[in-house]
Amino acid sequence: MLRGRIRSGELRPGQRMPTQAKLADEFGVERGAVRQALRILQSERLLTNVSKGSPATVAPRLGAAVIGGPGAAPRPTMVELASRISTAFAAPHVEIDALCLTSVSLTLAVGEPLREIHAGRINPARVDVRVMLPSRDIPLAFPAPVDASVDGRLQRRWLAQRNAQGQVLKHNLLALRSTHGIDVHVSFRALPFTPPVKLYLLNGQEALFAYYTVQRKEAEVDSEQLEMYDAEGTQSTLFAFQQGATAAPRDTTFVEQSHLWFNALWETISSDLLLTS
Questions:
Q1: What integer is the mean pLDDT of 66-75?
Q2: What is the pTM of this model?
Q3: Residues 6+ apart with CB under 8 A from 143
């Protein structure tokens, strides 16, 4: 929630934060939890001067850090995506489009905003989520066995993960309808290819992009060690681009073109996806 206030401009660069005692009272938590949250925000370069004494200060030159300017170093997906998703959920209408190999990163990333909703700290009126994943009917480029003669165990394992993560994501989001009266829509489409990149589009204003870097590795599958080609999506470096009055023209164009690309795939060569085995 504090991250959202800072990034939305409600808390301005150079402004002093409320005391840790006041924050603990506002959120109904112990001061230790507040202190830990402030340190995380400081590690994200959103706050400075976090200590047990005087109140922290919103970091200067926030704009460059938020829109991926020179002062913002790209970070791994599981570090960057969660904070961006949390900020997106502070809006009245949340819109998330995702193209990925599985929805594991997205499923994990929505955990924090879901907790904020259940705690009554945020309350979006509508949530629309669209996800494109590879079809079960294609041979995957990765994960794939190094030895092409190996049977389809890797494909079956990936399919089980794809379906399980998608079902958890869909269930957790749709549950907001009955628990909080939020208008939630979750849709999945199947791609006829293995995506070499992952893409997240947030609230029509932000694009997060990462490469799947394929590596040769060995892992246990059905009690047997198999050599395979695979990529660790949660550790992929995520590059952030935003559009808006303060954004660079290059970033604005990247976000616009990313939306056009996603919508074109969604409306043309993708197909219905059922999250079943």
A1: 56
A2: 0.76
A3: 154, 155, 157, 158, 228, 229, 230, 231
